[in-house]
Task: structure prediction
Amino acid sequence: MASVKEYNTRAIHVGVNAHLLSMAANYRSAGINWYIQNLLQHLPGADPGFRYTVFVGEQRYPGAAGLALSFTRLPTHRPAVRFVWEQVVQPWALRREDIDLLHSPALVGPMLGGRPFVVTVHDLSYHHYPDAFRPANRSYLRFLGERSVRRARRVIAVSQSTKDDLIKHYGLPAGRVDVVHHGVDEAFRPLPADEMAAFCARQGMPERFLLFVGTLEPRKNVVRLVEAYARLPRSCPPLVLVGGKGWFYEEVFRRVEELGLEGRVRPAGYVPAEDLPCWYNAAEALVYPSLYEGFGLPPLEAMACGTPVISSTASSLPEVVGDAGLLVDPEDVDALAAAMDRVLADAGLRERMRAAGLERARRFTWEGAARKTVDSYRRALARQGAAAGGGTEGV
Result:
């Protein structure tokens, strides 16, 4: 491994494990996948002192300027195969490419091998809501997740809420965890009203509707959202559910049927990322009552589009939304129904929320996230240099 002095005379070579990248049109292309894609796009421009090799299994991934791609023929979209690549193949790949530092942007790093690494932790939902995960997935995250964050040189948390969870559940020193918020893509911006009218016509949607965006799974609290919506007058605009079918999604549709909401609650399924700005812009409001989020991109994307946001008081969501939206207890169905009714009825409130949301969203950029991520890389390598010189950990 190179010394800190040698790093000053050449570019630092960072490897990024991007085997969770997916170009598929389903829920796998949301969430962490979106984080990885945006981070990779902006890392090369954050600091010329770094160069990157991206380890990836998705053959359709086009890459970005400033990235070298290292593909595998193994079907790493399968969890078991991805596990083998991460723990068996990856240490060898890092030596082959002469990687100085590995970034594992999806929690799990290699348990063997001498290369230092940084991990990104998006949330600890498998601790808070273990029943929302299948047993094999939960065991994988718990066993390797805890060991990864303990072995990592630095840990990147996507919110202060996630950092607090890491300190509480894993006992990590606060000084070893860096908070790096997500950014919002420039595509998420206000669009002309006539374009939105044409969009609604193409989608067969009325000019007014409420919107939920997210994978349909228990943590998103969609069942309570449906129950709250059922308490609104039948004359209110429909509720559109945009998102792929995740785990245990069936209860959502069962509850829609039990409450007689067919036709009023409209599942739109998975929507390609390039279409999301239109959905946000066309909506009267985004309703996002999640029980737990490491960050929560949909409220940020909606605010960047000038769409009023109703969200929950849980975990990181107040950190993202601030005072630009309405925040309610995610388990209080009456409060959620009252918030939707209030926003639908008050045009002045919607306009104030629109302005506040646009201002709030400007604080979150992927360029800033990339710069802070590189800062974390430098701290990880500074610790290595301190250890080599017999000093204390550098943070």
Summary: The longest strand covers residues 50-56. Residues 4-183+365-388 form a domain with the Rossmann fold fold (CATH 3.40.50.2000).
